[in-house]
Each structure stands twice: as structure tokens, then as C-alpha cells.
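Researcher: I'm comparing several assemblies side by side, and this is the next one on my list. It has 458 residues spread over two chains. Same procedure as the others: predict the full complex and return the structure.
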Amino acid sequence: MGETKTAAGRLEPKTKRGLRTRDALLRAAEKCFGEKGFHASSVSDITDEAGMAIGTFYLYFTDKLEIFRAVVDQIQTELRQHLRRSDNDDRLVRERHGLADFLAFARARPRMFRILQESYVVDPDIYFSYFESIAASYARQLKAAQAGKQIADANPDIQAWCLIAISNFLGMRYSHPSKRRANIGVVVDTAADFIAHGLSPNGRAHVQGQSGAGRMPLVSTSQARQRRV
Amino acid sequence: MGETKTAAGRLEPKTKRGLRTRDALLRAAEKCFGEKGFHASSVSDITDEAGMAIGTFYLYFTDKLEIFRAVVDQIQTELRQHLRRSDNDDRLVRERHGLADFLAFARARPRMFRILQESYVVDPDIYFSYFESIAASYARQLKAAQAGKQIADANPDIQAWCLIAISNFLGMRYSHPSKRRANIGVVVDTAADFIAHGLSPNGRAHVQGQSGAGRMPLVSTSQARQRRV
């Protein structure tokens, strides 16, 4: 059959067709969970949405909770693929690109936030695993950037959580229908400037006549100043 | 009776006893929602928890959704009272104190996060109203600090969202049982340094021999460097 059983007895698809079926179930589940929520969505809602018989579901997933976890994993996989495009050598430039890419991703699929937020309620471990996993690889990159003197030398795990917090919160806010028309360029510029230099008024004011790319604001102060969203 | 009816016909308590009863219902609801979630908690669970007859509930609240909103409002009120203690003249010092106070508040009542996260699912407007309301007053304070040249001149609304993101995410993480034993001092120092100076390696390295309190890191670089949580 080209497929193997998992410990729980479900099919781990190996064939293209099996993968396509599993993927179609994940898409349908993401739509149901994202629109109606975990509790209001049943397995038969998911198979109806996917246009499949309910029996097919149980070939791939044990229950609704298992496909919910798989949907969250899928969001993370796709997010990582999307963010891999940000590949500048300079970490501060990468942060800016990464934030812009994340906000574009978030606005293209605002349902992800409802699913993530609900995961905290369904089982906090799903929520924390998602963010801890992202934070762990983020922290490795920050540690490398510290070694290269591109960013400040501090606990990279906490730096990573601060950065994830900012992109996630701004992603939630600017994918909300009331903010669909916001000027995302201004959001990215302001937040990227905050990420690079914090709230401190210095470091920017003294840019002229000082060397060091890290001191350069990613947008000029006059640009960032009080721009409206 | 010393009480007036709201538009919905509920009692707006004016007497001490009425306020105490409403408050007891809010406490009971916070416990139920925080432990079992919105969907699994019924009005009778709440009145059982409060040791009251179910009829009493309907004197004060229209339904479960109304008391859920009131619980979120109550969290905000108590958070504001708690944070009002941070009252230093310097904005960067206040940010540091505010973060430390918020993390203490969060760790003392970790249920708040489950309730807030679930509010996004129950009705996103509850979630966004909570954060937009906090952000609006935060932004006013930041604007005043900008006018006083204490912090960088940029869109204060976006600065406020970045700051709220950091405290909320760190609050969620460090009130989780797996992180109860983390060294919160290191978390506060690292995050406060990020808030003041961002990721940029400069502004800290050049501290010596330069004037300007805003340039001073809130913890020395050697302190912040790679400290373990």
C-alpha cells in the first residue's frame, strides 16, 4: 500500500494520493476551526467540508484533537517556509524583512490567530509548543548574530520571545477586519525601528558622523516620526 | 433601593451590599472561566461557586456572555490599579518597573491569560477592546514622554502595541507552571534592556564617556549578557 501505521494505528501516508487526502483534511479542518472554533466543529463537519466520507478521517487521525494539533503544526510549517525568504546577511535587516513577511502572511490567513488563541484554551501545551519551537530556532539565529557582533549580547531566548511577541501581536491586530486598510509600511517601519533601537531617544539622534551599520536606523528618524497608520 | 436599572433591565448596584454581591459573582465567574473555560461553565456553575441562588445572577447580568465581558473589564481595572504604582519620572525606568509589576501580577493570577485568550474566540471584540483600551492610555503616556525627549519620536500607538505585546507574551510564558521557577529578575533585565535599546549592539558599547541618561542601559551590558533564566 505504500503506507505505514503509526503507534495509534493511523495511516502515515507515503503515497502521493495519501498525502493529498491528509492535506485536504487539514485544509478543511483549518477552515472549520478557524471559522466556527474547535468546540463547534465536529469530525463530520470536517469531512463534509473536504467532501469525504467520515470513515476516511479515521484512517488519518485518531480524533478531533489530533487533527487540531496537526493544523497548528501545519501553520508553523507554512510560516517557516514563508519566512525562509528573508535572507539578508545583516540581522537587523532580516528582522525588518521577517516582520514584513510575517504581517503579509498573517493578513493572508487571519484564521491562524483564532486557531492559535483557541489552542491555549483547548490545551496550553499546543500553544506553548508552537511558540517554544519557533523561539528555539529564532534564539539559535540570534546567538549566531551575537557572535557576529550584529546584535546586542543578551539572553537570546528572551530576545526571541520579545520579537515573537511583537510580530504576533501586530499580526493579530493588523489582520483584524477593522485594520485591513492600515498602512502596513508605517507599521513595519515603526516596529522595525523599535526592534533595532528600542524606545531610547539616543542612538538615532547621534547617527550622523558616527560609523557602524548597527547604529543606523533602518528608517530615518524623520520618516518614522509620528507617521500615521 | 439605592439601585438603578440598566438599559438591559439589570441592576446597577449602588449599595455596598449590591456591589459586594456583584463582585462575588465576578470572582466566581473568573474562577469558572479560568479553570473550565467559557463553554464548559454554566450560569449555575457560577452561582454554585458564589454560593448564591441562580435568580440572583439575573438581577446583575443578562447572561453568561455579559458576565464574561465584565470579568475581562475587571481584569483590566485591577491591572491598571496594580500598574499605577510604577510612577518614576523617567519613562525608561517606568517601563522597567511596569514590566516587573505586570509579571508579578500575571504570576499571581495566571487564569487571566486563559480568559483573555478565550475572549478572542468567544468574541474578538472583547479581546481587542481590552488591548486597544490599554494601548490608548499607554500611547498617551508615550506621547508625553516623546514631548519630554525621554523616548524616541515615533508613532506612539505602534510603540504601545510593541510594549504590550512583550509584557503580555512574557506574562503568559512565565506564569505557565513549567516556568514558575524561572529567574524573573533576568527576564525583566533582559526585556527592559531590549525595550530601551532594541537589538542593536551600539548605544550600549559606547555608553562610557557619553552623556545622556537615555543612552545608559538600565542594566549593565555585562549583567545582561547571556544570563540564564
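Model: For your comparison table: Residues 124-147 of chain A form the longest helix (24 residues).
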